[in-house]
Amino acid sequence: MSTTTFIIVAALTLVAFYILRKTQSLDPEKRREILDALEKGATLVDVRTRQEFDSGHPEGAINVPLHQLQQDVKGLKRKPRPIVVTCASGMRSARAAKLLRRSGIEVLDLGGRANWPR
């Protein structure tokens, strides 16, 4: 492996690690706020694919895959607020939260599996 290739691979690995750490970690206070909202009746939306959802999901979650979210905004506006979004790593839930906020929906981003209620 050439030095240039090694440097590129190392840099990409560091960037991937940083993104993964950033998306999986949630401030303990923010996590507590989100879990409290869920205990008070907030709607938990898992934005993973149906197949991922069927393989296991947080108790009480409904499945609205990210690619369907825009079409389901009206239905989500009728759900108890806030809407709490989650996915596998936090990447899709961040995108979902942004989309829902732009649609005027109060939303909290739980991030990925590492933050799911136990």
TrEMBL record:
Residues forming coiled coils: none
Short name of any one Pfam family annotated for the protein: Rhodanese
UniProt domain Rhodanese: residue ranges: 38-112
SUPFAM superfamilies for the chain: Rhodanese/Cell cycle control phosphatase
SMART domains to which the protein is assigned, alphabetical: RHOD (SM00450)
Gene3D superfamilies assigned to the protein according to its UniProt record, in alphabetical order: Rhodanese-like domain
Protein known as: Rhodanese-like domain-containing protein
